[in-house]
């Protein structure tokens, strides 16, 4: 059973956002898309397993109040190890969630990293999504953040359900990074906001 969600009704102009970390360059395309080139070896990660802290991935953020959802769409043209793009949900440098698609060990992976001082990571392979348009949706309701994603107009997939303090001031928006190389350019094709999801599962 497909889970139909109310699409966000308010397109967000790229100028509405503020860069958490500025990219190497940006360029506006003829259809309103935003091309972003992250810095070489940029990433977001805290400690777990690898031991390092990286906090320099470019992310264009706008407020995500309780009761709202945000969607980011991008062309999936990732090719090198750890190339990634999606949505960053930001509280502070020790509390954040990133979700989207990443190249890991030669495969496209749909996943999320939830960080509360230490990062975790969950992935699932999506090789069939190559060269298509991906949309990642984050929805903030009550004490929870629900993350979903889909390719083109296919059904939504639940990626993650994680706690998020309803008292926290939260921003969110498109992010990308290239931990292992230079020259990645991500084409973001849409950024929208609207009401939060009313259910986690179709039967709710």
UniProtKB/TrEMBL annotation:
Which protein are we looking at? DUF1349 domain-containing protein
Q: Look up the domain of life of the source.
A: Bacteria
Give the residue range of the signal peptide.
Answer: none
Query: Which Gene3D superfamilies does UniProt cross-reference here?
Result: 2.60.120.200
Q: What's a Pfam family in this record? A: DUF1349
């Amino acid at each position: 059973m497909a889970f139909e969600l109310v699409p966000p009704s308010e397109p967000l102009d790229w100028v509405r956002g503020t860069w958490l970390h500025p990219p190497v360059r940006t360029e506006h395309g003829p259809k309103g898309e935003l091309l972003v080139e992250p810095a070489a070896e940029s990433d977001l990660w805290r400690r777990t397993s690898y031991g390092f802290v990286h906090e320099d991935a470019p992310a264009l953020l706008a407020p995500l109040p309780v009761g709202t959802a945000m969607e980011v769409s991008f062309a999936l043209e990732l090719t090198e190890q750890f190339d990634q793009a999606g949505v960053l949900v930001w509280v502070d440098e020790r509390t954040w969630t990133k979700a989207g698609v990443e190249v890991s060990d030669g495969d496209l992976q749909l996943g999320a990293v939830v960080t509360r001082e230490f990062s975790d990571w969950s992935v699932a392979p999506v090789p069939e999504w190559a060269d298509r348009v991906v949309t990642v949706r984050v929805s903030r309701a009550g004490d929870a953040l629900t993350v979903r994603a889909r390719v083109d107009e296919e059904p939504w997939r639940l990626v993650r359900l994680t706690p998020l303090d309803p008292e926290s001031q939260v921003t969110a928006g498109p992010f990308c990074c290239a931990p292992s190389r230079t020259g990645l350019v991500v084409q973001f094709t849409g950024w929208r906001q609207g009401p939060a999801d009313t259910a986690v599962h179709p039967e709710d």
